[in-house]
Amino acid sequence: MNFNFLNKNKRNIDIDDKIFQEEILNIKDVIAPSYVGINQNYIKLGEKIAKSFFIFSYPRYLNTGWLSPAINLNVPMDISFFIHPVSSELILKKLRSKVTQVSSELMERQEKGLIRDPALETGYQDIENLRDKIITAQEKMFRFGLYITVYQNSEEEMREVETTLRSIFEPRLIYIKPALFKQKEGFISASPYGMDLIGINVPMNTEPLSTAFPFVSFDLSSNEGILYGINRHNNSLVLFDRFTLENANMVVFAKSGSGKSYAVKLEILRYLMMDIDVIVIDPENEYEFLADGIGGNFFKISLSSGNHVNPFDLPTPGPDDNPEDILRSNIINLVGLLRIMLGGLTAEEDSILDQALTETYAIRDITPQSDPATWEEKIPLMSDFGEILENMEGAESLARRLKKFTEGTFAGFFNQKSNITIDKKFIVFGIRDMEESLKPIALFIVMRYIWNIVRTKIKKRILVVDEAWWLMQSEDGASFLFSLIKRCRKYWMGVTTITQDVEDFMGSGYGKAIITNSSLQML
């Protein structure tokens, strides 16, 4: 017997099994929006709105990167270029016809005595220039189409973006329009299908076409280095190593409270992580807590402190150094220091100081002929120099002015042997407690001591000179700082110069030179 109702149930069971066996979702179902609606102004893609635009007019000249402001907008968009090459033979034929036409118009106006038409004359020159470049294969002609599809959440947001795009392009005489009644074609044209369905193309030769290249990067980034910040234009990371530049010097200009010390401290920490030594000259003891926190050394420099730096210290000559050059350079720098300490010097006094310094070293058997390995244990003091001056004819005034540094209140700092050892990765010299009038002198002495260390042992270092305007107050201090900045590259060192008094800094003839010799300027 045939029970139909049983067969019916069997068919239902078979159908249900088939449903489970079929693929319910494919890739299109996953990526497609829940709804697509097309009207004349935009396309509705689920909860989003997509609107397509095209550029239909360009000026005579285009600057490189003119598209970058639009690309860098914080707006989701698709941009597509369609570049269709045009036969040079066909273009030359059309240009010949156009030249004939424009030339005839110019001659006709001249015969009729009409005033000159600058637009017509400029057009004639442009056509001739383009013909010459195409004939010599310097240029080629193309048809260029540029389409933009913007995505927003509402019509109001879309209107704001459209206004922004117009404000970017129209001042450059570049004109953009929405693809009315062609939103579907615009959406497809801006998608990565390679289909130009709008077909709004503008004739353009190679040179202006190259300015539309979208990857004009204003990023400062490399594979090595530290993070300095974020590029506000495109949110990219500013990442680089200052030691890969022409020189590793940097100047930092900012008003008080703007964060310059914070930025420099952050840079210091990040370079310490890269195993680069950092030395700081700190006029306000701002870096003391940083030194304590990371295991560095903080040396307090004042009249009453136990840390001393002998101005007469000499660097240990390297294998390529000439001892005579080192000694002569040190004497010249000491004359500059004494000029700051003793006030203005006459030419005669300058000569006396030079001679006295040479004799002070010679009495201790520190000469170009002696063994440089023995210099360190024979270094003279300021009092030894004072004794030489007292016994020199014509040096009485200099000896009297020097006494306060050898026997007076200042002797506790200026007439002592150096007892500072630089054996940590991070070193800070704090001069906040030094007398105001002595700060430029203390800065000079500390920087000379650091320079001697740098020349003795070459390795990557950063020297931070905070409130550098103290040193720039004197001609000799500014000259020494400039000399150090100019020469430090040979010893793998970069100098960071920080100041908030830009006018005082620039007022010195060396201020501009220091900026010129610094590859980085942080404002």
Automatic annotation (TrEMBL):
Entry-linked CDD domains: TrwB_TraG_TraD_VirD4
Coiled coil: none
InterPro entries (UniProt xref): P-loop_NTPase (IPR027417), P-loop_TraG (IPR043964), T4SS_component (IPR051162)
Domain of life: Bacteria
Domain TraG P-loop per the UniProt entry, residue ranges: 244-523
UniProt-recorded name of the protein: Conjugal transfer protein TraC
